[in-house]
Amino acid sequence: MLRSVLAALLSTSLAAAPLSAQSTYDSVDPFIGTGGEGHTFPGAVAPFGMVQVSPDTDTTCQVRDCYGHAAGYRYDDSTIQGFSQTHFSGSGHSDLGDFLMMPVAGDTVPLDPGSAAKPDTGYRSRFSHDTEVARPGYYAVTLADSGVRAELTAGTRVGVHRYTFPAGKAAHVVLDLRSSLYDYSGKILWSSVRVRADGTITGMRETRGWAPARKLFFAIRASAPLTGHAFHNREEKIAYKGFQGPGRGRTDVAQLQGQALVAALDFGHLTRPLELKVAISGVDEDGALANLDSEVGGFDAVAAVSRTAWQQALDRVDLDAPAPMKRKVATALYHAMIAPGVFSDVDGRYRGPDDQVHKADGFTFHSTFSLWDTFRAEHPLLLLVQPEQRNRDFVKSLLASQQESPFGILPVWQFHGRETWTMIGYHAVPVIADAYLKGVRGFDTDAALAAMVKSATYGPYGGLDEYMKRGFVPIDKEPEAASKTVEYAYDDWTIARMARALGKTDIAATFDKRAANWRNSFDAKTGFLRARKSNGAFRTPFDPTAINYGSDYTEGNAWQYSWFVPQDQAAMFALLGGDKAAVAKLDAMFNYDNSKLDYSHAEDIAGLIGQYIHGNEPSHHVAYLYSYAGQPWRTQERLAQIVASQYKAAPDGLSGNDDLGQMSAWLVFTALGFYPVAPGSNQYVIGRPFVNRAALTLPNGKRFTMVADDLTDANRYVGRVTLNGRPLDRTFLRHEELMRGGELRFAMQATPNKAWGAAPSARPYSMSTAAAK
């Protein structure tokens, strides 16, 4: 039955299309994930850029409706409201959309966007996908109502808009400081705008959104002189039409402050396209101006630099695959290189979590850390495909944020230097530990370990006081208690690993003991992770399929979270009754009949295969767990099932939020044939490849190549694996082996090789069995 289901799901053929000669850069499709619930944007951004300039198709949504517009753009919308400068890529929460700009042609300049149903009532415009072009660092579209051709590009700290206006029509730009992608009222606390003597437009706003009291400043310089301007505070509801005659608006002021500012900028009748170069800063207007000057040239110059940067970043992974698969994997690699983004100005200044200005000493400060998601595969991938300096900057940024935090702990979910306290765990810890254990140096390791311990012992956070006292988080004291217990235990294990590597055996012993705390919430009788009360009893009634936010589990249920013991899967399998019982339970999870279940109340529960939920992160390692039971051929089957059903080379090609690159990083690793189930172990569990060949240029300059011989739809099983020409009988690859360069070669076949990887000695790392290997 499983084979027939897999055959049906493999609709994107590995053999149907000829191998593409395109580079990785040329294969990227930024529209993948802009439909469905992928929440990606198609606009322009440089690798890890501070500015993400992109179209917003609707920012007027209300509360829950904004979830679908978390990135500003939805592929199924038919109008564009404007182009704002900041966006999340694939987040599960809305915010940003700062400093929206919209070109307007003609005599009348509306000050309000109008509605998607009636775009003629405002500056909003209809558009057609037929006129859109998107590639890394570049986006273009024709605004149907005005006839303006809009193009966008971005450097590290600047975005550049180029608007080509119809001949004979006056050129205007609306700058709307009211627009936001956050979904609650009162979101704009304060804003300002002014025209400087040289015509540069500067300003700022402070928002109360997902992150509280977020300050952002901007500077805009146009390629043509202003012939007029009008600033309005729409709290006053001033009518405005044109720049001449009665009711022309506040042309008498060079600056304005308020909570609902909108500017109309006039450039007259132009004979060439209008370019507007925009820079942002979290510090002040001077920082935005310095950032503006730091990247020289106009649209074409910035676009050329951005293109080169993307080519260099993406072509570090040379892919050989049929065009549809290459398109998916190349785009996934692109999405994995958008965040964490630069957030320090060109002079090194940045605004930290204490809302104070700091200066990065010898590193570039990065923010936008979606750590609950990205510790799993996103950061491990970047350790392989980005220079060591970039990964060192990530670590230093996390440590700087800890030192500047009013609470003295590492970031949880941070953007623009501000903490949101979203999701659970202290997952900056495994990011730092994994980086150190994989050779990243150049940061204060003693300070790093101290920061990790401080985060793991800060009692007021997430029930940690109870966890340290009892060895588990009690549900009658703290919500999402079962999930928190196991996630804390994993993070604790990574602290122990780094402490031991640094010779801090006392710290290692303490956190080794805490790493076993997952056992305290695992119910061997039912075979599930369960929430316990402070009296030690498991909470009843118990339904392993129940998903209730704020309850026992975080964005999931017992089926997903019962597998989250990446540091000791062998011990968890033993509690289940051994390998056979573990495999049966894994199969039961994937084969579960959901027909009588309703998860419509749970917005992040997407991409279901039984009770496996690929659209959300707690399930991401589960398909690889068959290898811990000596049956890697079943992992190979499940991976084929997941890749075929959860990823498409289309706008709705992601089954769930990309979550700042985690969904994408999963696909990149899986396509290469291995995956980091337990970051901190320095091992990658071998699955099966989905591309014919991939060559990685590693941070040390060496090349590591994966080759899949005879890879077809039919040949989805691994018959044999060799590493540098020698048989590899184990189901894991060591990080040091990968970093030495060389070749990992798979021989693919139509039937499973049930002998390969079956021996206990062939299985990946588990804490309880590591000493025996």
Automatic annotation (TrEMBL):
Superkingdom of the source species: Bacteria
Organism lineage: Bacteria, Pseudomonadati, Pseudomonadota, Alphaproteobacteria, Sphingomonadales
Protein name: Glycosyl hydrolase family 92
Signal peptide: 1-21
Pfam families the record matches: Glyco_hydro_92, Glyco_hydro_92N
Gene Ontology CC: cytosol
Domain Glycosyl hydrolase family 92 N-terminal: 28-281
Residue ranges of the TM segments: none
Signal in keyword set: yes
